[in-house]
Amino acid sequence: MRRARAWVAAAVACAIAGLSPTALAGAGRAPDHDIRRSRQVMGTIVTVTIWGDDDEAAARAIARVFDEFDRIEALMTSWNDTSVVARINATAGTRQWATVDPETFAVLRRALDISKLTHGAFDVTVGAFWDLWKFGTNQDGSIPTDEQIAQRVRLIGYRGVKLRPATRQVRLARRGMRITLGGIAKGYAVDRAVALLRAAGFDNFLVQAGGDLYVAGRKGDRNWMVGIRDPRGGRGEPFAIAPIEDRTFSTSGDYERGFVKDGVRYHHILDPRTGRPARRCRSVTVMAADAITADGLSTALFVMGPERGMKLVERLDGVEAVFVGADNRVSVSSGLRDRLRILKPPTDGI
Length: 350
Fold this sequence. Notes:
Elements lengths: L12 E4 L16 E9 L2 E9 L2 H22 L7 H6 L8 E2 L2 H16 L28 H8 L7 E4 L4 E4 L12 H15 L5 E5 L2 E5 L1 E2 L2 E8 L8 E7 L2 E7 L4 E4 L2 E4 L2 E2 L4 E2 L3 E8 L2 H14 L1 H8 L6 E6 L4 E3 L8 E2 L8
Antiparallel strand pairs: 1-10, 2-3, 3-7, 4-6, 5-6, 7-8, 8-12, 9-10, 10-11, 11-20, 12-17, 13-14, 15-16, 17-18, 18-19
Helix pairs in contact: 1-5, 3-6, 5-6, 6-7
């Protein structure tokens, strides 16, 4: 039996757009259609798609969504010295506490909850590796030495993140520790975007930020159809699809940021215990009621692998998952088996 957990408020998944539109919304009105805008923010492409007939109102709402992503990035980024996360990192190994805003404190607490649930498979202190592995814009194909990795592994441990909830204060226990909210902040931003769009009166839309996708309502008289990317296929090439309504899909994959060297794939999803790219999966897609849960869990389950990860998923209320293991086998949780349609086996390869 699945056990409800209080912290669960309750992909890449890519939206398969272009389904048949509905009939005219009413006399004298334009037919409902996709109203879509994209922008780069938080290190990824964010796309908002609204199904409706008021282009101007949709454009205004989408602009507010992008402003919200900018605001959250400024709070939670690890890439400048002025963010709240940077102030937390400055406390490492000192007696100082950083007083942080309610949002960042809440996201950090949720991250630590997921860390406890997954026994450290998700761990915000992997920020200690930020300048060691070269992925993303500074990717250069270099591989750290065993000694360099071992030095940083000593700094890993979510229990070293100390909280004072009454005063919203945070500090890091050991000098050299560094947190990153990169594995969960985009999920929070997607949840905030969903709240803004609903407050603006929209019920049928998609919000996608890289591998995090929230699907609200329907596309006319049909569900939105969501695809799970083939880890070794091309972008926009799904191996499975499912109709989704009012749920989030979050996918962690080894293909987004990384490189192949000497026949080995190196990627940005690190196993906190080893300091090296996790090797048990090619991708994990999580479906949940909220994006922050799906975002954090997809990273953790990727590290845990299909066997341990699926056992956890089947215990959680409102959470489903699709694993593509390192052996390219697909595993689907019990609550998704009747909804997910496998189009083809995932492509094999390194």
